[in-house]
Amino acid sequence: METSSDKGPKYPYGLQLSLDEEQIKKLGGLKGAKVGGSVKIMAMGDITSMREEARKDSTSKNISIQITAIDIETEDDFDNAFAEADTDEED
Questions:
Q1: Secondary structure element (H or E) that encloses residue 80, with its range
Q2: Using an 8 Å Cβ cutoff, are 16 and 3 in contact?
Q3: Which pTM does this prediction carry?
Q4: How far is the C-alpha of 79 from the C-alpha of 81, rounded, in Å?
Q5: How distant, in Å, are the alpha carbons of 23, 50, 52 from that of 57?
Q6: What is the Cα–Cα distance from 39 to 29, expressed in whole angstroms?
Q7: How many CA atoms lie within 13 A of 58 on its CB side?
Q8: How far apart are CA 52 and CA 61, in angstroms?
Q9: Most buried among 16, 33, 47, 61, using CB within 10 Å?
């Protein structure tokens, strides 16, 4: 997880996806992925719970989502798809 030098983690807990070898093979869109690269993630999910809690000085909300379908493309795949579309339009 990326960290910010003075405030701890750059992103909150729970916002990182970890995929094992089997999941990477099933997705297929991670071929050519590199550390430091970017990906486009498209997903569908079911809301499994919602919670709102009121306290004396604050309130908090929480929504849990179970991902049911996901597709991931590397930044290169995404850029190449647009390049191919531009080429198709010129024909």
A1: helix 75-90
A2: no
A3: 0.59
A4: 5
A5: 43, 21, 14
A6: 9
A7: 2
A8: 4
A9: 33
